[in-house]
Amino acid sequence: MSSTGQLWQPWVLSSFPKIDSLQLLPVRKKDTLNNLEQITVDNPVAGNYLINVKGSGVTTSSPQSYSITYQFDTLNKFNWYYPTKQDNIFNDRTNVLRWESTFSNTTGQLEYSTNNGNTWQLIDNAVDLTKGYYKWAPADTFVTALLRMNFASQNFLSDAFTISKRFNVFVGFNCPDSFMLYWNTIPGVNSYEVYRLGDKYMEPLLVTTDTAVILSKQTNTSFIYAVAPLINNKTGVRSYGYNYATQGVGCYVRTFLAQLINNAGQLDLDLGTNYYIKTITWEKSTVNGYIPLQNINIISSLHFSYTDNALVHGLNTYRVKIELLDGRIIYSEPETIYFAKEPYIIYPNPVPRYQDVTIIGNDSENAELQVFNSLGVKVYEKKKLNDWMNTISTNKLSKGIYLLRFTKDDQLQKTLKLVVY
Q1: 130: helix, strand or coil
Q2: Which of 164, 197, 229 is at the close of a domain?
Q3: What is the distance between the alpha carbons of residues 192 and 213, in angstroms, rounded to a whole number?
């Protein structure tokens, strides 16, 4: 030091080639061996310091280049390493908080605040500071928060971070011109940011205060989307990215099923969303086209059921008609129930030549089928009808009238007439 003449030499390790010497701690002394040296000054007082650099064994007459680097370290410091302002703490799992402390204190009081430090809530009154970490599972909330470690009559605050978790995004509809994404309302969250997959990464698309978005396919060609909550202008954890085209939702219709239960037709409809729907109509196919069975004008659910107790012998085909508030009509794919009042049904009948005939039997297991022409000659035989639905080909049948004879256990069950044209 210039004013006092005090001198600090570099720290030097022993270079004597013995284990016990190499394990010795460094000492301050002149170093003529190494070209990299370290000097430390503990608790330096204010003033000017002079650094002397002198080369040993420099054989050239030209100046020898060198560099000096320095670093100031605080004697007593506490730094939060996690979370930082860019981090999110998950509210549905245990998180590991991390810090570094050079204080001699071994315990501290850990608190958190969700109102920018106006009030604080205790996490642990005796945290082991020497560990450098603490496991914490916060409450199930979507908020911004601060951490505070208290000891040595001081308070050490973290950066503001978010507490949130991933949430599900659903597909409301996937229609030819547009698609709808929606999610459940999150208490305390007033806006959300929607992302879509760009060339390589998820990119911000829009911010909305709603819990649903309808996007045009013409201007949104990506299939992958995600949503993140905006919490006090900080972005919470983003949902997983979803391919809306692979979530099993069509144009409003998620599933439409028709089943035969106790000689009645059970129809079940599940929607992706009831947004903008005016009416839902169950329809049944007849010789005169589809006719309405029931209209639903109060659309307050995503699941609807209907029972048709007037099944006809043969095919009963249904569809769902959805009318939107703007007058557009959406139809489901048709679903068919096969109902047999008699032991067997054959269709179509009459049947064009070279088209297969379908046979449905109530009790066709191990039954046999024989086909006779109008002269009584057997032209086709199927030894076993193992399934409730079977098909036979008409490729080898000429145009004309045929008799289909069904037997089981050598007993005649039914004889039906088939016309091939």
Answers
A1: helix
A2: 164
A3: 10
